[in-house]
Amino acid sequence: MQKWIMSGLFFAACAFAVILMFTLPGREQVAEQNSPTMPTVEANPAKAEQTVKANCISCHGDQLQGGVGPSLQQEGNNHNAEQIYSIVTKGRGQMPSFKDKLAPDEIANVAMWLSEKK
């Protein structure tokens, strides 16, 4: 009887391990989530400004002067485009993530636009 119980527990543990192997994210997925890769896009300042007006001014102000969020008027002095892309994609502090609201190309365009503000 004890052999059957131990065999059953062993089988359950093996089944659980197999399920975890196929459902947990891999090392590459975790690395991508921690450090998203900025896609290559052609800069479009007008489109970036439109995206910022639609998504950012409520916290960063209509002139990017700051408010609830920090001023972005000279953001290029503080962060490069890749860093800005990562911040907007993942969020930071009180800033929420925009990865589910904006396409990666839109975020990259905004990041490039903001990185030029010095």
Automatic annotation (TrEMBL):
The keyword Heme applies. It comes from the Bacteria. Heme c binds at residues 56, 59-60, 95. Binds 1 heme c group covalently per subunit. SUPFAM superfamilies: Cytochrome c. Pfam families: Cytochrome_CBB3. Gene3D superfamilies: Cytochrome c-like domain. One of its GO terms (molecular function) is heme binding. Residues 43-118 form the Cytochrome c domain. One of its GO terms (cellular component) is membrane. Keywords: Electron transport, Heme, Iron, Metal-binding, Transport. This is Cytochrome C. It comes from Paenibacillus durus.
